[in-house]
Amino acid sequence: MWTLALGQLAMISREQALAAIGRRRLERLVDTGRLTRPRDRVYRIAGAPTDAREPFLAACLAAGDGAVVSHLAAGALWSMRGVLLGLPELLVEAPRRLHLPGVITHLTTCLPPAHVTTRGPVPVTSPARTMFDLSTVVSPWLLGRIIDESSRRGLASYAELGRCADLLAARGRRKLTVVRALLDNRGPGYHPGDSDPEVDIAQALTRAGLPRPAQQHQVVVGKRVFLIDVAYPDIQLGIEYDSEEAHSGFAAKQHDRARDRALMIVGWKMLHFGRGDAIGAVVRDVAAARARLLSSAGASVVAPGTKVAG
Prior knowledge:
By secondary structure, the chain is of the alpha+beta class.
């Protein structure tokens, strides 16, 4: 019993405890203070180190088999953007119903094994399923950020989200519109980039009527491969977003200078932007640079704001 509890954040359900020891022994451990009761039918080893995930696992243990942490609680356990730990939320398959004090419960008609995993010892919906459930409680803008960041972190790919959508749709799940729209905007050629501002720049350029730029574009110079945040390879124009987190150190600055020198030697023009640059100014500068490079290359110049082929 102790071994099992130590693998579950020092907690154990009543059913698990009774499978290992008798009822009288369990009551004696509670009476002597060796076990506490954080929730009805759930016991905890007294004095064990605390963990922020305890309320969520305790809710699952109280609910029994088949209940998993979901929605905002699952997003927080996966450390998704803008989602903080709050009340425990559990997802169970209908027609089962739960009534646990201090726990938000959700019913579903579709909870296949592929949509359930663990975060440490806590049963939780998979990252892909979590993002679909979040679509009902967070804004589309924030969900887009969560989807891109999850892709960068390797939590769930766009293809995995697409498969999740197909399965939910086949099982009659409604309200897939938001996620479908976000996935449609992340079609072939879309890259989540290294940061949200990089994605913002690429999207702003496209909205302004400029061609969709390449993201994380690879350029081989000699035996070295360099990545450019956003690029127009046809005219060798590179756009870099220099975040304070990734570009402030001495080694990072040295790398950036060496990369720019190597790229400029083979004909690339580099534009750098940072947190203080308004997105409108970024678009104007990139449009002007692109028009100048097209003009010098003998191509037709199209006014910024109109659609350009290429």
